[in-house]
Amino acid sequence: MEDTPSQSDHYRSSSSSASSPTAARPPRGSNFYYLRKPGPAMLRRPISFEDSPEWGDDTEIDVNADELAAESIHVGTTTISPSLSKVNSVSASGASPTPGLSEASRRIAGASIVWRDLSVTIREKRRYSERVVKNSTGYALPGTLTVIMGPARSGKSMLLRALAGRLPHSARLYGEVFINGTKSQMPYGSYGYVDREDVLVDCLTVREMLYYAALLQLPGFFAEKKSAVEEAIQAMSLGDYADKLIGGHCYMTGLPYGERRRVSIARELVMRPHALFIDEPLYLLDSVSALLLMVTLKKIASTGCTIVFTMYQSSTEVFGLFDRICLLSNGNTLFFGETLACLQHFSNSGFPCPIMQSPSDHFLRAINTDFDRIIAMCKTLQDDHGDFSSVNMDTAVAIRTLEATYKSSADSAAVESMIGRLIEKEGPRLKSKGRAGFSTRIAVLTWRSILVMSRKWNYFWMRLMLYLVLTLSIGTIFTNLGHSLSSVTVRVSAIFSFVSFMMLLSVSGLPAHIDELKLHMHEEANQHTGALVYLLANLFSSIPFLFLISISSTLIFYFLVGLKDEFSLLMYFVLNIFMCLLANESLMMVVAYVWLDTFKCTMTLIFLNVIMMLVAGYFRIHDALPQLWKYPLSYLAFHTYCIQGLLENEYVGTSFAVGEIRSIPGVMAVRGSYDISASENYKWFHLLILLVMAIGYRIILLLLLCFNVKRCILKCDLCWFNKSSTA
């Protein structure tokens, strides 16, 4: 069989004459199409991208490595560069520089995704903004890599969210999205979505992280979930890191950015999704890690999975792995089609890619308006050292030229024809996969939280050390007080100091609460868990740690200060401190959710604790407080009820001798320093109020999570968008 003409020859000849668009065009008869790799029983034949995909059943079938290699799509001519040739051969042959899919890999029934005339607007201050995405049209087929590329603020991430059905409530979607030829959204479990930022638990190993994700997402038996985890580890080439802590420990370093990115993708692969959406998969990765990750994604796509992702720019080697590209600028679609056809589109429009320049760099140079400012600033340097740019016209003009050329090109007509065929040929509907039960998810999150708390030194161990040092300090300062009438005032000061500083030191656990909330918001967005599940699991997991802190601190303080030596009174003291810590933890979680920033949360909690200390009734008797501070601040301070309960526990039912005959009740002796009740049962009422406060703050957090989680995510997205970081 005769060799086909070299595509790279056309590419190089066009690149060598950037000033002549006419000369840059390839000779007539040149075919820009893809060829399937020849198998043992298949002749070399051209496969146009208008070919309709074969619909797979909603099941998984086993295939061997040769069949996977035969299904891989590659360029049917000579390669663009030696490095790209090496990468393409690696991808096509099924080999990888890192361990990849096994010969017995499961064949996945991918999903065909079509979007037509898709536009997105965002509501801002009682009105909708200009369209972030404007009349975009394209498709993604099973077994392929489709990249959405463009400069910052071009609408890449918003288009990806629209396709995955993850737009915020304030966004309005226009146009149509078809899944397997049916106008519908992708149900739970049929797709995976990977955010730009990696939200991982640093104190878990890779295998533990994926295993807990499988327990949360998948129904069925533990053996099946373990099998899914091992398949995800193998698919993402994480075997060498499976038992290493993600964030490192002591002198051990954490996982590099590339491996952390792989873990985030593997967490979604546990569900064995039909489609995978990834926002900036190469974010913060070096060139080697980026290439290895893209080769891995190429191998995953070869199993049938539909992969759509966004990207700002890439190297030539990485660019050669893409099957289709959707090029955006300011929300406008400048091209959709095969990657090499995009090079030809730029050449036909008068912007051929130079030989020594990466295609993605050339595309972004032509459509990124920020380059105009750079050229204007360096105009003098350009005159002396030549032109920096491969595009000799204004960026706005280049964008209009590329858009107009694409709309009138055969590529656009072919895309419309292909979309018509995909919509006409309706495939199987994707079914929602089951998930773990309510009680199972609570148990999984509780056990995971306990494991995380026990490994995070700043959440539990550091707090425990601080509490022990604090109680030893207070206990030794107020030791040997005796039980005379003169010791009452000093003992009240000791109890007030113990309670106040115990609550103040709780702020040291704030970073752990913020990390847990961020992890919950990520899992909530992916429908892996819910607000009620998270709150119950957090409550159950925090109880043993708070109780251990309460009993260890109380034992030291109780006996050093010399309080009543009765077991029932000691246990009430422990329960009172435990309830106060529980109420304080609930308040910390509310504040952490409101700010999600360590500095702001710390300042807020310190301020609130100081205010509650001032109105707790120690510095001035509760009844003597001004009305402004008494209502409602003094009644909202849990310090008040905690200290009152502890003093009533110590002094109700006691008396102090005054002279040889007369004695006064302990309540009367305390009232000179603190206002307490004479009833023996009133201390239990104070304990009940602390419990109600602890539950009340968590109910407030539940309401915030139920009604404001998506709004909070939207605020983060809009802030990111306004800072020019959102695509």
From TrEMBL:
Residues 13-30 have a biased composition (Low complexity). One of its GO terms (cellular component) is membrane. Residues 1-35 are annotated as: Disordered. GO terms for molecular function: ABC-type transporter activity; ATP binding; ATP hydrolysis activity. Pfam families: ABC2_membrane, ABC_tran. SUPFAM superfamilies: P-loop containing nucleoside triphosphate hydrolases. It is found in: Membrane. Its main location: membrane. It is a multi-pass membrane protein. The chain crosses the membrane at residues 464-482, 488-510, 531-561, 573-596, 603-621, 684-705. Residues 113-355 form the ABC transporter domain. Keywords: ATP-binding, Membrane, Nucleotide-binding, Transmembrane, Transmembrane helix, Transport. Belongs to the ABC transporter superfamily. ABCG family. Eye pigment precursor importer (TC 3.A.1.204) subfamily. This is ABC transporter G family member 2. The lineage of its organism: Eukaryota, Viridiplantae, Streptophyta, Embryophyta, Tracheophyta.
